[in-house]
Automatic annotation (TrEMBL):
<feature type="modified residue" description="N6-(pyridoxal phosphate)lysine">
    <location>
        <position position="214"/>
    </location>
</feature>
<comment type="pathway">
    <text>Amino-acid biosynthesis; L-histidine biosynthesis; L-histidine from 5-phospho-alpha-D-ribose 1-diphosphate: step 7/9.</text>
</comment>
<keyword id="KW-0663">Pyridoxal phosphate</keyword>
<dbReference type="Pfam" id="PF00155">
    <property type="entry name" value="Aminotran_1_2"/>
</dbReference>
<dbReference type="InterPro" id="IPR015424">
    <property type="entry name" value="PyrdxlP-dep_Trfase"/>
</dbReference>
<dbReference type="InterPro" id="IPR001917">
    <property type="entry name" value="Aminotrans_II_pyridoxalP_BS"/>
</dbReference>
<dbReference type="GO" id="GO:0004400">
    <property type="term" value="F:histidinol-phosphate transaminase activity"/>
</dbReference>
<comment type="subunit">
    <text>Homodimer.</text>
</comment>
<dbReference type="InterPro" id="IPR005861">
    <property type="entry name" value="HisP_aminotrans"/>
</dbReference>
<dbReference type="GO" id="GO:0030170">
    <property type="term" value="F:pyridoxal phosphate binding"/>
</dbReference>
<dbReference type="InterPro" id="IPR004839">
    <property type="entry name" value="Aminotransferase_I/II_large"/>
</dbReference>
<keyword id="KW-0032">Aminotransferase</keyword>
<dbReference type="GO" id="GO:0000105">
    <property type="term" value="P:L-histidine biosynthetic process"/>
</dbReference>
<dbReference type="InterPro" id="IPR015421">
    <property type="entry name" value="PyrdxlP-dep_Trfase_major"/>
</dbReference>
<protein>
    <recommendedName>
        <fullName>Histidinol-phosphate aminotransferase</fullName>
        <ecNumber>2.6.1.9</ecNumber>
    </recommendedName>
</protein>
<keyword id="KW-0368">Histidine biosynthesis</keyword>
<keyword id="KW-0808">Transferase</keyword>
């Protein structure tokens, strides 16, 4: 296979992630709660009328319309994707020439650098401060100096849970000539008003990405969306694959956004679970960094990871520079307790 691989991908490897269905799964920031009964009932009823013999609506208009209504924007301001991952790829695919610069704070969502490499861009990483908060001054300095074509701001940040304030994002938008992508995959979990969606029409270089994979408990449906001014949406639509979002996911996503109160209430429960997890960790002498998302970021003694895995408790391990950190998403109170009980004898 290697002999056919493009040279520029030589250092890359196939993406791998174990498909876990049993145990305490706290490693992918998914919702610990299954989808609402009402959604299951709706899909059972709806599945018979979905025209699966036909291609789906290539523009996911029913879903886009529901999204537009919720955020009080026009349908022309919305694009739907196979998860927001696909939209990240489309943004880079529609903008980058070979070697063009892309900026991301570091650590942040790994797909930004993955897709930048796939689209022949050059990633510039601006480190977070030593307390794992965003270094806005450094970001602005690098933006001014390098003027990257695309800038990724993950808010709240995966994997650290830190946030930008709206004013900080505005101040970056003011100096950026490139496209600023604000990834709000976890914004439903933040107790601060951080969303930039109300301002998308004030800027010609801002796009906000959202997903149903986290707060909406629909990671398996692979559906997300972007909100931006019409020109930016058109840019993405130029490279977006036809019929990208399948007919089931369009229906599921539409129901979910139309019933978002159910999911937002669940998000608040998950935030309570995260607070419980943080307190439990602190009681064990551990020091999770402050988080506005559904997960925490911390260091753990060596060998804890493997010991937890043996007990079928799964958390995420990440190497940042030369240090190892862990990201643990909040589970149900029962799951949190299983983790904390296991940690009690390990730390
Ligand atoms: C999970 C996640 C996404 C969403 O991925 P999907 O492709 O929509 O499942 C996007 N951005 C960040 C930062 C994430 O953590």
């Amino acid at each position: 296979m290697v002999k056919f691989l493009r040279e520029r991908f030589a250092t890359m490897a196939p993406y791998h992630s174990a498909y876990l269905t049993e145990g305490v799964i706290l490693n992918s920031n998914e919702s610990p709660y299954s989808v609402p009964e009402e959604l299951v009932a709706y899909m059972k009823e709806r599945v018979g009328d979905l025209l699966v013999n036909r291609y789906p609506d290539t523009d996911s208009l029913e879903l886009a319309n529901a999204v537009a209504k919720v955020y009080d924007v026009k349908i022309e301001n919305v694009v739907c994707g196979v998860g927001s991952d696909e939209l990240i790829d489309c943004i880079l695919g529609s903008t980058l020439e070979d070697g063009d610069k892309v900026l991301m704070p570091y650590p942040s969502f790994s797909m930004y650098s993955q897709f930048t490499q796939l689209n022949s861009g050059q990633m510039i990483k601006v480190p977070l401060k030593s307390d794992f908060t965003y270094d806005v001054t450094a970001i602005k300095e690098v933006v001014c100096k390098e003027q990257p074509k695309v800038i990724f701001l993950c808010n709240p940040n995966n994997p650290t849970g830190c946030i930008f304030t709206r004013d900080e994002i505005r101040s970056i938008l003011e100096v950026a000539k490139g496209l600023v992508v604000v990834d709000e995959a976890y914004a439903e979990f933040s107790e601060k008003e951080i969303s930039m969606i109300p301002y998308v029409n004030d800027y010609d270089n801002l796009i906000v990405l959202k997903t149903f994979s986290k707060a909406y408990a629909l990671a398996g449906a692979r559906v997300g969306y972007g909100i931006a001014c019409e020109a930016v949406i058109n840019l993405i639509n130029t490279v977006r694959p036809p019929y990208n979002v399948n007919i089931f996911s369009q229906a599921i996503g539409t129901w979910a956004i139309e019933h978002r109160d159910i999911f937002l209430e669940n998000a608040r429960r998950i935030v309570d679970n995260r607070k419980m997890l943080e307190q439990g960790l602190r009681n064990l002498g551990l020091k999770p960094y402050p988080s506005e998302a559904n997960f925490v970021w911390l260091t753990l003694p060596e060998s804890v990871f493997e010991a937890l895995e043996e007990k079928q408790i799964y958390i995420r391990k990440m190497k940042i520079e030369d240090s190892i950190y862990y990201r643990i998403n909040a589970g149900t109170p029962e799951e949190n307790n299983k983790l904390l009980e296991a940690l009690k004898v390990l730390v």
